[in-house]
Model the fold of this input.
Amino acid sequence: MSAYQQTIQQLQQSCKAQGAGWAAINAESAARMQLQNRFKTGLDIAKYTADIMRADMAAYDADSSQYTQSLGCWHGFIGQQKLIAIKKHFGTTKRKYLYLSGWMIAALRSEFGPQPDQSMHEKTAVPALIEELYTFLKQADARELGGLFRELDQARANDDQAKAAEVLHKIDNFETHVVPIIADIDAGFGNAEATYLLAKKMIEAGACAIQIENQVSDEKQCGHQDGKVTVPHADFLAKINAVRYAFLELGIENGIIVARTDSLGAGLTKQIAVTNEPGDLGDLYNSFLDGDYIQSAEDIQNGDVVVKANGKLLKPKRLASGLFQFKQGSGVDRVVLDCITSLQHGADLLWIETEKPHVGQIAEMVNRIRQVVPDAKLVYNNSPSFNWTLNFRQQVFDAWQAAGKDISGYDRTKLMSADYDETELALEADKRIQTFQADAAREAGIFHHLITLPTYHTAALSTDNLAKEYFGAAGMLGYVAGVQRKEIRQGIACVKHQNMSGSDIGDDHKEYFSGEAALKASGKDNTMNQFS
Done:
């Protein structure tokens, strides 16, 4: 007996036990509704997806080709369509996640209107988007299963037992659209208590993995903006602890914490770290401060700050803003210390924000980290803030120049030009872009590749193309040829938008509730039948 049939049998017994009052309840209909709503709470989702992510991390440790990927999605519908597309094209959602980008929440989901990525949006928007994404993914489950149930009914009506058995197998082995979300909590939106409270809401909404960065909360900047300010390790570790306590309180003992360091591009700190003895974390943090060693109190001006470092008195350089400056060229060393410290104090994965996508640069840092923590691995931002074409063409240019290859036909400063698109250099650069994720997973310890805001850009690009055609000479053909015809021929399920929005699910329920008296929307006059 299949699992589906067992569920029906159990519900039949429950209904029978209730007597005549439940006589109108159809056990198979109730079983279908149960299967279409596998996850009852966000915590159910967090537990399920944390198990998936932990298994994927172990698989990557054994074989670096088993890396994972995600795209950032700013709306539940976008996340839903992404997972539907993945199942359609690859047959499984294995090793495919969702990324929840603080940047896109700020730009697209704030009630204040579009905001820069500086933690100025409502913190409640973060768990709200997690809940929305999972609502749409669960609806994708209900929609696909509803189609299988209708196939089963049709097979039974045709007395096609082989077909019915085939559909039952699909129902019993149905793969959910619900996948892990790596969710951005920025710098924690306040102190450690504020971080804990927000982390709880995010976990309750379904997040199994929370990414937190070591910037000052009230000075937070996008990782690809200037003016980033980091905090001493003790402050950051308190927030890592806060997130872990939130996971444990809610029973998600294997929740994942992604510790992000912005130190590579952050040249400033807001405070001097507390230190109790030479060589402790505070002392190491302060050792990167830029400043001048002084000999006596006469070298101190009004308002100056002095610390003891390396057995001498150091007067750190202080800006008009009150911020302190790090030594030039100390970024890589600070990143390595940040990462080792985070892993040794409860983080599970690392995120190193870089200024360019360069496997060698990332590998240099990761190899140093792995000397201390051998299984260290990264979540990496394949960022749209990088000019991928120019970066990789310049990398090839530099590699060829170092190898003594003739590069006289190329101008390094103009390699973005379309004039170079069909050249040997450009083709080699494209090959390196194509294999970047596999190369970086193998050589630089990257377990998870994500793109923070790709669907922001695809929405803008597709809308520009449609507007250009529809409002231009093409008129309605701009939509038909550019959108609908492609949807039909590419098998985009959303072409039946009534079905996608839940019309058929609602019809099923009406029939369960009212039987033959149900007024359904999917009859012969529904224009969606034109797409059958």
The chain has a mean pLDDT of 92. The longest strand covers residues 256-261.
